[in-house]
């Protein structure tokens, strides 16, 4: 029997797994960039993404779907993710990963702004305060570097 609590545990478990994976994702480039350039590191990361994607699609997923609009947005995701990754790698090659990873982890502020403008979503007062605190965190993280 699926209960509300068991459904929360599923998304919470997935969210915590993502948090762990993204923490490792943000840490390993610092080690890579001690030995190779940001562009080479992006290339090798893409090799890892492709190998993992094949497992996800053909072992865990339903196969490749062909909706063109969905594919277009997924391709844009890959393009902007890779460009952002390159700049992230350039930053951490010479800067403090502890500050840079925390600062770049505030990317949801961009997503929130786009959701408000493009998707016409609304924020509660508490959510607005959260976004403002995130912006304050960005200012505090980027000062005194």
Task: Give a short synopsis of this structure.
This protein is mostly helical.
Key terms for this structure?
mainly alpha, 145 residues, 79% helix
What does this structure look like?
- It is a single chain.
- This protein is mainly α and 145 residues long.
- The protein folds into two domains: 4-95, no CATH class; 106-145, no CATH class.
- It has six helices and no strands.
- The chain has helices at 4-32, 38-60, 68-94, 97-104, 108-117, 125-142.
- The longest helix has 29 residues, at 4-32.
- The chain is globular, with a radius of gyration of 18 Å.
- The relative contact order is 0.07.
Strand content: under 5%
- What is the strand tally? 0
**Mean pLDDT, as a whole number?**
90
The geometry reads as: globular
Distance between the termini: 53 Å
Number of helices: 6
Fraction of residues in helix: over 70%
Low-confidence stretches: none
What's the structural domain tally? Answer: 2
Given helix and strand content, the structural type is mainly alpha
Q: List the secondary-structure elements in sequence, H or E.
A: HHHHHH
Major sheet characteristics: none
What integer value in Å does the Rg equal? 18 Å
Task: Please give the structural blueprint.
Blueprint: H1 4-32, H2 38-60, H3 68-94, H4 97-104, H5 108-117, H6 125-142
Helix pairs in contact: 2-3, 3-4, 4-6
């Amino acid at each position: 029997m699926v209960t509300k609590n068991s459904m929360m545990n599923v998304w919470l478990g997935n969210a915590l797994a993502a948090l762990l994976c993204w923490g490792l994702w943000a840490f390993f480039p610092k080690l890579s960039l001690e030995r190779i350039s940001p562009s080479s590191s992006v290339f090798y990361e893409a090799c890892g993404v492709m190998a993992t994607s094949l497992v996800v699609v053909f072992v865990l997923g339903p196969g490749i779907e062909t909706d063109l609009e969905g594919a277009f947005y997924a391709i844009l995701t890959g393009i902007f993710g890779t460009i952002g990754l390159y700049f992230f790698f350039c930053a951490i090659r010479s800067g403090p990963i502890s500050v840079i990873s925390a600062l770049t982890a505030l990317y949801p502020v961009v997503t929130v702004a786009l959701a408000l403008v493009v998707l016409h979503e609304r924020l509660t007062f508490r959510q607005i305060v959260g976004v403002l605190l995130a912006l304050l965190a960005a200012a505090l993280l980027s000062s005194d570097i």
